[in-house]
Amino acid sequence: MSFFIKGKTKNSNNKRTKNNNQGKNNKKRKLPEPEDEEITSSEDEGITLNGEKDTSDSEDENETAQDKKLRLAKIYLQEIERLEKEKLGEEDEVDKNLISKRLKEDYLKESGKFRSYVANEYTPEKLGTIQTFKCREQKNTITCLCVSSDNQYIFSGSKDGVIVKWNCLQGKKVGIIPFVKHNKDVILGHSSKVLAIAISSDDKYLVIGEESSDIQIWDPENLKHIKTFRGHSKGITGVAFKKNSHILYSCSMDKSVKVWNLDEMMYVETLFGHQDKVSSLDTLYKDRVVTSGSRDGTLRIWKITEESQLIFNGHSGNIDIVKLINEEYFISGGEDGQLCLWSFMKKKPVYTIKDAHGINEINNQPNWICSIATLVNADLFASGSYNGFIKLWKLGENFRSAQLLFDIPQIGFINSMVFTSDRKNLIVSCGRDHRLGRWFTNKDVKNCIKFIPLLEQ
User: Fold this and answer.
1) Alpha-carbon gap, residue 370 to 321, rounded angstroms
2) N or C: which end of the chain has fewer CB within 10 A?
3) Strands (E), 84-214
4) In this structure, what are the phi and psi dihedrals at residue 109, rounded to the nearest 5 degrees?
């Protein structure tokens, strides 16, 4: 299979899964009536949510492209100045050099060139007291979690079909989206296992992926339902927002990846190519998404604008997880116990850690890699399995190698992990079994969330 595949035109006859409910002319169809809270992947891109053609005059109708760029640049500078003032204090004047430095960093981050070498700051001696978050509503395995941009709230999803909102500082439950029986008229909760969760960069939207194939959109502040996206024919295994936007990517057991626009609350397109269920995905600033193809043994980078994809091969078994380090490198893990470090420019791993979490004494097979957390644009990442330890790793110079920093003891399946944006903490979901199945169960484990301070205050 070739490394680079140029996408065909949007009218190309891609094969679809047997149960896919999209028709042949899925590119242009009418939206539902305004009272219908569902958005399907066959909706018309050119029709507004009220079912009519958008003929309203925009305030920016006469604005030139150059004027728009200038206006947005001014807004961006004002926002940076505001953030810097918050750090220094309202009365202090912001140094122009700070703004210049921030602009340079933001540019490097978005272009994938920014690299922060911080891993040496993390040592076992700096670990703080680990806190445990648990509640009676989430009795079954916690499968996924995400954190608000201000690091104040955690949102966790479980096989109970329950979403819990936690206050990080207090370690308390502050809200719940319950499990409910399916009701087309009113959405009050979820009616199947929750397998994926994501929150937008501005904390405006909380997105939940269900085993039922539905994608539910909620307001993270008050946990009120906003919309339902339908289009996938099987369970949702991953959801992710493009950074600083409301572009959403979803992947599914139906072998497809879909693109959605939450500003317009509409379906954009479907990406075909994987030969087995898509187990996970990740995205950053660019119009790109990286996906893992489970048992088809491939990782793919989809270049949305160019309508093309890159195919990577290196694992010998099921691929469970993939995470971006920056816009040039990413890490994957799976059933073969390997952690593979990849460059966008090479179709084979640039570095491989074999048996990263050791060998299972019962079956003499490598312990699966269940989850990975990356500190974006930095030389630190974490991996989780079910061997009783979370491992922290340091990336080498130029992100082309890795070495173990230290282990953090933690029993159970580590199904999901995320670093807080201030890089001080690691938040982990622990469960009795794997998020996508029950191949074996550890009954000694309590289904919970672990809040791990990495840099003691």
Assistant:
1) 7
2) C
3) 131-133, 142-147, 153-158, 163-167, 172-177, 194-199, 206-210
4) -65, -45
On the question of pLDDT at 40 being above 80, the answer is no
For residues 380-401, average pLDDT: 95
Q: Do 376 and 284 form a contact (C-beta atoms < 8 A)?
A: yes
Residue 261, strand partner residues: 247, 266
Helix (H) or strand (E) holding 341: strand 339-343
Contact 198, 163 (CB under 8 A): no
307: number of Cβ within 10 Å? 16
Give which of 197, 218, 210, 320 is closest to 262, Cα–Cα.
218
Note the pLDDT of residue 19: 41
Those residues whose C-beta lies under 8 Å from the C-beta of residue 266, and which sit 6 or more positions away, are 31, 39, 43, 45, 49, 260
Q: Which two tokens stand for residue 230?
A: 């339908």
Determine the distance from the C-alpha atom of residue 40 to the mean position of all C-alpha atoms in its chain, rounded to a whole number.
Answer: 21
In sequence order, what DSSP letters do the residues of 257-304 get, joined into one string?
EEEEETTTTEEEEEE---SS---EEE--SSSEEEEE-BTT-EEEEEET
Alpha-carbon dihedral angle through residues 339, 344, 346, 349, given to the nearest 10 degrees: 0
- CA 216 to chain CA centroid, Å, is 15
Torsion of CA 387, 389, 390, 392, to 10 degrees: -120
Under a CB-based contact definition with an 8 Å cutoff, are residues 451 and 130 in contact? Answer: yes
CA distance 448 to 139: 9
pTM: 0.78
Q: State CA 279 to chain mean position distance.
A: 12
Distance CA 134, CA 156 (A): 10
Complete domains list, the chain, with CATH? 65-111 (no CATH), 119-453 (2.130.10.10)
Asked if pLDDT for residue 1 goes beyond 90, the answer is no
Closest by alpha carbon to 418, among 193, 184, 199?
A: 199
